[in-house]
Amino acid sequence: MLTIENLHAYYGKSHVLHGVSFDVQPGEIVALLGRNGSGRSTTAKAIMGLVDWEGSVQWKGQSLTGKKAYEIAHLGIGYVPESRDIFPNLTVHQ
User: 38 in a domain, yes or no?
Assistant: First the structure.
């Protein structure tokens, strides 16, 4: 379903993710674990096309290379960041 092979990601000239590979089959639940700065969020951002990356990312057999984030979202992949600044001016009630 989701196949990642030799994924490298960059923030500008900084090479921050080095050769990540994994495969997620239908029905599997996968968690990325690690301490701060280990690349969990960067891996998700790369899959979504939010950072520059090299390698192979395939979703249901289709390559995501060169696709824009909105195109990837239309294929059924989403990314919700953990930070609190998504709706910084709204209260819990709103």
Answer: yes
Tell me how far apart the alpha carbons of residues 8 and 15 are, in angstroms, rounded to a whole number. Answer: 7
Note whether residue 24 is domain-resident: yes
H-run or E-run covering 4: strand 2-11
Domain count, the chain: 1
Residue 34: inside a domain: yes
Amino acid 57 reads V
Range of the domain at 54: 2-74
What is the gyration radius of the CA atoms in the chain, in angstroms? 14
Task: Give the contacts of 54 (CB within 8 A, at least 6 positions apart).
Answer: 6, 7, 8
Q: Per residue in 44-91, pLDDT tens?
A: 999 999 999 999 999 999 999 999 999 999 999 988 877 666 677 877
